[in-house]
């Protein structure tokens, strides 16, 4: 919950701390990955922040909100193992999604 007037972020301590954390993580991420494309890289920082352990709530913010740990990769997608086994390229994945997950690859 944010308290204070919207034009006075100084009175919103938790929002200011979050902004500082995100700035620090993003700066480190950009340096580690030799990138200047911060809008794209911000997604990775957001995932890192939301899936990391938070001592105040004794779990990650993602788990607090959704009741499960965050998952990454195709195995966490709603695709069957049969479809995942047949994927060879990104084009195959795009085709599967466009065909409504029915497994039609390469057609």
Automatic annotation (TrEMBL):
Family annotation (PROSITE patterns): INTEGRASE
Every Integrase catalytic domain range: 1-69
A GO molecular-function annotation: nucleic acid binding
Species name: Oopsacas minuta
Any one GO BP annotation for this protein: DNA integration
SUPFAM superfamilies according to UniProt: Ribonuclease H-like (SSF53098)
Gene3D superfamilies per UniProt: Ribonuclease H-like superfamily/Ribonuclease H
InterPro entries: Integrase_cat-core (IPR001584), RNaseH-like_sf (IPR012337), RNaseH_sf (IPR036397)
UniProt name for this protein: KRAB-A domain-containing protein 2-like
């Amino acid at each position: 919950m944010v308290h204070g007037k919207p034009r006075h972020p100084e009175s919103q301590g938790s929002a200011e701390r979050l902004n500082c954390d995100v700035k620090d993580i993003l700066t480190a991420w950009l340096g580690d990955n030799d990138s200047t494309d911060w809008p794209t890289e911000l997604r990775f920082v957001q995932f890192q922040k939301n899936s990391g352990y938070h001592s105040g709530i004794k779990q990650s913010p993602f788990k607090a909100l959704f009741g499960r740990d965050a998952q990454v990769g195709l195995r966490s997608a709603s695709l069957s193992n049969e479809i995942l086994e047949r994927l060879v390229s990104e084009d195959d994945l795009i085709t599967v999604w466009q065909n409504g997950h029915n497994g039609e690859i390469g057609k």
